[in-house]
Amino acid sequence: MGIEVAVEGLTMSFGKQTIWQDVSLTLPAGEVSVMLGPSGTGKTVFLKSLIGLLKPQRGRVLINGVDMVNSPARDIYETRKVFGLMFQDGALFGSMSVFDNIAFPLREHTRKKESEIRRIVMERIEVVGLLGAEGKLPGEISGGMRKRAGLARALVLDPQIILCDEPDSGLDPVRTAYLSQLLIDLNARTDATMLIVTHNLDIAARVPDNIGMLFRRELVTFGPREVLLTSEEPAVAQFLDGRREGPIGMSEEKDAASLAAERVAPADAGPRPIVPQLEPSEGLPARRAVTRRRERVMGMIDTLPPSARRAVERTHATAPTLPLPSAGTGTLPSAGTGTLPSAGTGTLGRGTAGSGA
């Protein structure tokens, strides 16, 4: 099962520029969360702060009792091993093959034999749909394939926390849809805690259990997906609706004069519809996070805004409680059980090295 991540009063500055301040939230164990926000709001900086790659000026990030901000460097280094991090551009070594890139963490952090490393790497390659590309160099494959190789590398140590930095950037809508399904399937297989940084509203609407948003150097909101998706807070509503009218401008935020000059927003057209959350692909176990989340959210329902409360009630009125899968489903499966589409679909399936994503 994944590990809870508790963020308390986190503040990050570069020189005199405050990136964000007093950020507090909890990533529930085993659930999928998304962090939204306009460009330049420090979402990637936040991701790197969780894993201790950047050091905030104030606050704590608690993981299994270790503070990733203030604990000794040795404790932070050891705790990083529970993380799998998928960088925005894949961050692959250009002189290494796809196979060797994915194998790198195993060779660096374990004493496994090469035969065992090959078995694990090929399983992860199968899961992300890269069979046939393992011998290629990063420069010989497409950007989407490099992203999937980066995700496979993030999975080889069976992490309990998976961080994904804009996994959809540069992907077309079809491949983004397959990527969304892949992320849900990974959570079903591993029960890992996941945080995805993205601008993509389709991913935000269909993938996570929880959603947050950074804007104006603050965490505007974080909580169950229904809270943000029904929010009428001006910056959140503008971002979700993708319109120019509102506090978000080209340089992150508009001044008062610009806001005053805008036309009055049209009358409320009713509650924003919430699309159903993706379910695991056929043949995979139910997500254990679903039952845990239902109990957690129903326990706080009286504290939610009325629109979010109604959305939660509608969601759970048609979603029966799922039994928890038996023990033993907490790691990725052996080769041959990948769930991505078969070769020839032209998407994120088990394509050959020549597939376009």
Care to describe what's here?
The chain has 12 helices and 12 strands. With about 350 residues, the chain is of the alpha/beta class. The strands form 3 sheets. The protein has a 6-stranded mixed sheet. Helix 3 (about 100-110) packs parallel to helix 5 (about 145-155) and helix 4 crosses helix 5. This is ATP-binding cassette domain-containing protein. It comes from Streptomyces broussonetiae. GO terms for molecular function: ATP binding.
C-alpha-based Rg, rounded? 21 Å
- Biggest pleated sheet: 6 strands, mixed
Helix and strand run: EEEHEEHEHHHEHEHEEHHEEHHH
CATH topology of the domain at 5-94 and 156-263 and 275-317: Rossmann fold
The pLDDT mean sits at: 84
The outline comes out as globular
Strand content: 15-25%
Going by CATH, the homologous superfamily of the domain at 5-94 and 156-263 and 275-317 would be P-loop containing nucleotide triphosphate hydrolases
Number of strands: 12
Continuous helix count:
12
Numbering strands along the chain, what is their spatial order in the largest sheet?
A: 6-7-8-3-9-10
Structural class: alpha/beta
Helix content: 25-40%
Attribute tags:
alpha/beta, 18% strand, 357 residues, six-stranded mixed sheet, disordered C terminus, Rossmann fold, globular
Summarize the structure.
The chain is of the alpha/beta class and 357 residues long. It has helices spanning 43-50, 73-79, 98-109, 114-127, 143-155, 173-190, 201-206, 225-229, 234-241, 256-261, 288-299, 306-317; strands at 5-14, 17-27, 32-36, 58-63, 66-67, 83-86, 161-165, 193-197, 210-215, 218-224, 248-249, 252-253. The longest helix has 18 residues, at 173-190.
